[in-house]
Amino acid sequence: MFMQNSYFNNARILMLSVLLAGGVKPLFASQITNVHENVALLTNNQQKQTVKGTVKDANGEPIIGASVKVKGSTGGTVTDIDGNFTLDAPAGAELEISSIGYLKQVVKAKANVAIVLKDDSQTLDELVVVGYGVQKKENLTGAVASMNAEKLATRPVSSLSSALAGEMAGVTAVQTSGAPGSQNASITVRGKNSVNAASPLVIVDGVPGSMNVINPAEIESVTVLKDAASAAIYGVQAANGVILITTKKGKTGKTTVSYNATFSWSSLLAKLDLVDAYGYAYLYNEAYLNDHPGAKKPFSDEIVEKYRTGELASTDWYKEALTGSGFEHQHNLSLSGGNDKTTYNMYLGYLSQEGVTKDIDYNRINARMNITSQINKYITLGLNASGYRGTQQDAWAGYTQVIQGIARSHPTDPVYDEDGNFKYVGVDNPVAVQGRDKTGWKKTINQEVFLIGSAEIKPIKDLSIKGVYSWRNWTQDQLGFKKTWGYGTYNSGQREGYVRNYNYDYLTGQILVNYNKSFGDHNLGVLAGMESYDVKYRYVTADRKGGGNNNLDESLNTLDASSQKNSNGGTEMTRLSYFGRLQYNYAGKYLFEANVRRDASSRFPKNSRWGTFPAFSAGWRISEEAFMKNVDWLSNLKLRLGWGKTGNEELSSTDLYPAVPTYAYGSYMFGNTLYSTAYESRLVNDQLKWATVTNYELGIDAGFFNNKLTMELSVYKKKTNDMLLYLPLQGVIGLSAPAQNVGSVENRGFELVLGHNNRIGKDWSYNLSLNMGYNKNEIIDMAGTEGPTSDSNIWNLEGYAISSYYGYVADGLFRSEEELKKGPLRTGNEKVGDIRYKDFDDDGKITAAGDRKIIGNQMPKWTGGFNFSVGYKNFELSGLLQGAFDAKRYYNGEASYAFFNSASCLNKHWDRWSEENPNGNFPRLSLSSQTNNQMSTFWLQDASYVRMKNLTLAYTLPSDLISRIGLSFAQVYLAGENLFTISGLDKGLDPESGNSRGWSYSNVRKISCGLKLTF
Predict the structure, then answer these.
(1) Contacts from 657-660 at CB under 8 Å and sequence distance 24+?
(2) 940-999 pLDDT, tens per residue?
(3) Closest listed residue to residue 609, CA positions, set 619, 623, 599
(4) pLDDT over 90 for what percent of the chain?
(5) 790 alpha-carbon distance from chain centroid
(6) Contact of 53 with 66, CB cutoff 8 Å
(7) Most CB atoms within 10 A, among 38, 858, 863, 921?
(8) pLDDT digits over 102-122, tens only?
(9) Where are the beta strands (DSSP E) in 125-278?
(10) Dist. CA 376–CA 397, nearest whole Å
């Protein structure tokens, strides 16, 4: 079942051998070492001189931390806060000076030297992390986007996924919640390729991991592989794109200690625009009379007037139930340094978040250690150890009950009754339901241990062999205890509790062989590798109800043992892969790359277990041609072409063994005895195979005026074939349907990135970057499985995008009896002021079968972002505007309908149809009629938006000031996150929110201050 065969066993043995080889010298190493020692003695006897100098930029400003070393050596020094350095060098030697953001320079060593480094606008992006390696950006032939994570240091974000919104073209990040501990985003790269799943593969330091357990302060860079040409090296896992995360590592030089602290205050971005007491009483009367013509008004005119004048109080439930803002703080401490043999980086981080309800909070600790040690000329060892523990706590019912209670409570009802006790009027009092000590509690603890060990051997020049093995353990503990309590006539019922544990072990082994060689103008790079990947999942759950004591809430043993329910189980899955890459370029002008990967998965039957995923790409750097050398204004011009295939094995999360018979457990009563049973529950498809995504890519990269102006344009087409779908079976078979390779989905689009950077005089600099992406998603073939998803309002239909809204098309309101008589009608109970729908089949009536259609999609077709930074002396103002366009959102319940399920109503309902307001835009008010509460375009809203995602003002303290207290760098900053949103939605709604009724903990606005110190 789990592919326990010789392939996997041999792979593990081979990987272990390579790792063990890291501690064994080659047989000939001792002889060569002796030769090196003799040479070293001769070198030491050579005459040396002390070189002193300064390193400055073109404006005369000292460059701090520039690397200065003797050319060809591995040691060296770095410049101090004034740009000065001192170095011993052999007479006649050459010095190599380099610093990030500047062109490298080589000068002859002498007693005193003054070096001026020139800006290099390309240097920051020179090396880009790609699959199983790094590559010069100028030589890339695939669609690769990268982000230097240093910019995250001043953003008050707790999750990398949420920080990606608007940063890269074609990468869509949607954060549905701002609750403490839940501020993560779902990521989609160039649209959805399948109705089953759309999440990209995440690689952390070379092996599969998660981006939501890493503190952004740990990260050095983020790269996204968007097309098959760049991602096919990951084969079956790469259909939805690949996100490569590289954490910070040590650098040669003196030990540096860095500390970063951020303090933030958060508040909800979206609050339903609820009416006050006057609005509620007035509109409630109207709705009541619509339902009961001629009846007595529930609120007398006198009472309504007193609400209007304020003589009678109006309850603002948001103000009463929420704290107003939640305080959070982050602290990050790192220690980094090393010499020419060993480098290290150690990190410790702490995050504390409070919510806008008094019960929810979140605390997280992160730690990481990266060590790389060159044992000798041939062997380098590496250890990357990290871990985190995050704890989220809330009351038993949670923040959802509080926010739901706010939406449903009436502004005419007070929080407390005449005796000072909480008042209960049939809906949850959102103030009363808070208090973990009173109502009970729930806690979720997530933790991870992640170990990566590596050994690299360089037996000969240009050849390296690297072995990598990683173990990642992720666990989640869920605990909860509900207490018995009440207020007014409300009683919470019997006590109950639960304990649930979920445990995942991820084991990854790799062997990577790299060969890089240049033959004149011919440059060759070859990679060959293999990888094994195993996932083991186990769970245990326990629940009890009844009995117990409110004061004994730490153990299930206090609850009624006869009510207990327990369950446990688990799954295993494994993959084996072989892969290779060939890179070639001629004189940096003609570029070619080929990738291929062979994957085998335990999820598929033996005869179709293996899948092959090739990719080819080519590039032509036109700007390097001789006939372009005299075009001074053109810095770079490259044409890219790519084709490739990636794979997809995504099925239902519970369907790990679609190729083997699986059994379900049940019970059956024979006589008076209950027997446990096991039975085959599903048919097996022994022809099941990989779904494949074929990608075509055309790209142009250009730079002008010494790359002060840049452009990247990509046009692509992706098509998924053999998508995994569950075709329906006749009920008489009695078994559930197996997955089959029958579906097809297509994505077409383009991406554009424009950049501009410049310096103005000595003091001013700026950097602008605009990215935008367009993607059209379309289902080509559903093989007869078209229809609703688990949400009856969202359908998958051929010719339309995945997960589209399906409903009626509104045609205004019936505004007169004449219009009502003409119809068409849906129920026959419509009245003047109700919604009218279009009759598409012209049968004179509105029916679900004939008059519903696709009416919109919640995934935006257009996405984009605008990054900017402006620097003046030691000040820098930076920001990010992020947007999404051509998307719809469906809102119902309390977010759309007046008095829905005895709730309140919204200020927009003042614009309703009535006899006094016959031109109103909303349906007539009713307390009981559900006629208008149907899925239709009337309740769809334009979810396009532009959001000020971040705005930061930073000031770097002068070096001559901070050096007196031992600091090499000090910066203070003010930052705002989600400062404002321009949206087509009604007031009080968040375009990213995941709840259609307005009950969600929306995204939050954060105002922050912080400091960064380096010693």
Answers:
(1) 657/1, 657/571, 657/602, 657/603, 658/603, 658/604, 658/684, 658/685, 658/688, 658/738, 658/739, 659/603, 659/604, 659/605, 659/684, 659/685, 659/686, 659/688, 660/1, 660/605, 660/684
(2) 999 999 999 999 999 999 988 888 888 889 999 999 999 999 999 999 999 998 788 988
(3) 599
(4) 70
(5) 24
(6) no
(7) 863
(8) 677 888 888 888 888 876 544
(9) 127-130, 133-136, 144-148, 171-174, 186-189, 201-204, 207-208, 219-225, 242-247, 253-268
(10) 60
CA dist., res. 467 & res. 456, Å (int) = 6
Collect all residues with Cβ–Cβ distance below 8 Å to 325 and sequence separation of at least 6.
Answer: 265, 266, 267, 356
Q: In what order do the strands lie in the sheet with 853-857?
A: 787-788, 794-796, 804-807, 853-857
**Bridge pairing between strands 1004-1014 and 634-648:** unpaired
d(C-alpha 688, C-alpha 327), whole Å: 52
SS (H, E, C) 238-260: CCCCEEEEEECCCCCEEEEEEEE
Among left, alpha and beta (phi > 0; psi -120 to 50; other), residue 317 is: alpha
Helix H or strand E encompassing 306: helix 301-309
Say whether pTM exceeds 0.85: yes
Contacts of 305 by beta carbon, 8 Å cutoff, 6+ apart: none
Reported as type and span, the H/E element at residue 482 is strand 463-482
- Two tokens at 592? 């070619």
CA angle 610, 612, 616 (to 5 degrees): 170
Sort 853 into a burial class: Cβ within 10 Å, 0-12 / 13-18 / 19+. middle
Q: Which two tokens stand for residue 355?
A: 């919510």
Residue 982 neighbours by CB under 8 Å, 6+ apart: 945, 946, 947
Give the integer Cα–Cα distance in Å for 464 and 458: 4
- Residue among 752, 769, 979 at smallest CA distance from 869: 769
CA–CA distance, 1011 with 481 (Å, rounded to integer):
40
Q: What value, to the nearest 5°, has the Cα angle with vertex 480 and ends 474 and 482? A: 170
The tokens of 722 are what? 């053999």
Supply the DSSP symbol for 541: E
How far, in Å, CA of 69 to CA of 77, rounded?
6
Residue 623 has a CB neighbour count (10 Å cut-off) of 18
Short-list 512, 651, 525, 526, CA closest to 577: 512
Q: Residues with Cβ < 8 Å from 842, sequence gap 6 or more?
A: none
Residues 6+ apart with CB under 8 A from 215: 158, 330, 332, 347, 349, 351, 364, 366, 388
Residue type (1 letter), 777: N
